[in-house]
Recover the amino acids of this structure.
């Protein structure tokens, strides 16, 4: 435990399980948009993240950019969660997932089926269908979804054992647009690992997600596009640990009226 | 013959997907492949013929969120 903050109190023993894999860090970090590969690597280390998201893109013979990126990730020793970012149809998402499984050697897939360009909102109908196909094929699906409870139920029926509702549109940094919806989701699925994925802008957003009882937070742009990504990675790690500690500490009830925190007994000038 | 590689028109003499990768200097690269929208596993590349008009995708690990 860190004597100064106590923030790491729960970290050693308090783990989250994704498909039988125990994870200590509740921060999942994206790897895109960093100023340089060196800063990406340093930010991952500073975040303490054990899982990073990766993607697949067209490779050119001349550049071979993908090869050096993959080497960097492997050297860090983190687990990878490949995504199907940019896929708009079930067929595209399923094929991309299959290619990712071969390339990265993991059954994990962050399943994105995008339905709308302005909000990058998931096409939940395609998402459920793709999740069913992939789960049957042995994938362990992390679906990027909304806070819709009916969709969530169908994803679980399709074989998903993790749900990842959005906080706000991808890359928007708006935080938790619908705290009520996220709270309802947490209450409806107490035993399901829930990850807020997308829309987080500052560490307080991530802490709020954890205080709602979410198991983890997945973010990318908020760290990558910060002026100092390494420092921001550290800030998010602290906020997520703080939010988790707060949940375990059982927060006080909210009251409508003031209640003195300083003892009233023995107060001077009373009755004089 | 004329094919499409990663969305761009290309000319090739490669008879198989494996030969095409070698032509593109990607024989040893860590890539995943698809022909006409269907994935072709690495082990199947030498046995996968390339025909005129085929659409080939060659994907590599990349940064993602």
């Amino acid at each position: 435990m860190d004597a100064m903050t106590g923030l790491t109190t729960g970290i050693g023993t308090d783990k989250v399980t994704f498909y039988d894999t125990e994870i200590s860090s509740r921060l999942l970090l994206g790897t895109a948009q960093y100023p340089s590969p060196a800063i990406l690597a340093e930010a991952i280390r500073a975040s303490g993240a054990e899982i990073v998201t990766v993607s697949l893109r067209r490779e050119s013979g001349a550049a071979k950019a993908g090869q050096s990126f993959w080497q960097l990730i492997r050297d860090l020793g983190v687990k990878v969660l490949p995504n199907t970012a940019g896929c708009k149809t079930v067929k595209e998402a399923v094929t991309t997932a299959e290619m990712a499984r071969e390339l990265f050697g993991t059954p994990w897939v962050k399943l994105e089926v995008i339905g709308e360009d302005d909000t990058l909102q998931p096409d939940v109908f395609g998402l459920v269908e793709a999740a069913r196909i992939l789960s049957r094929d042995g994938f362990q699906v992390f679906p990027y979804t909304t806070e819709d409870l009916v969709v969530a139920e169908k994803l679980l029926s399709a074989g998903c054992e993790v749900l990842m509702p959005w906080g706000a549109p991808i890359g928007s940094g708006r935080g938790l647009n619908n705290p009520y919806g996220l709270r309802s989701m947490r209450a409806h699925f107490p035993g399901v690992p829930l990850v807020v994925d997308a829309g987080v802008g500052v560490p307080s957003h991530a802490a709020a997600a954890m205080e709602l009882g979410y198991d983890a937070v997945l973010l990318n742009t908020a760290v990558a596009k910060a002026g100092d990504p390494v420092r921001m990675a550290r800030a998010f790690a602290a906020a997520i640990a703080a939010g988790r500690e707060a949940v375990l500490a059982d927060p006080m009830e909210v009251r409508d009226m003031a209640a003195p925190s300083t003892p009233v007994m023995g107060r001077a000038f009373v009755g004089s | 013959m004329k094919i499409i590689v990663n969305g761009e028109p290309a000319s090739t003499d490669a008879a198989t997907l494996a030969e095409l990768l070698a032509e593109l200097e990607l024989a040893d690269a860590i890539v995943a492949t698809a022909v006409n929208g269907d994935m072709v596993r690495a082990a199947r590349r030498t046995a996968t013929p390339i025909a005129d008009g085929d659409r080939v995708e060659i994907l590599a690990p990349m940064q993602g969120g």
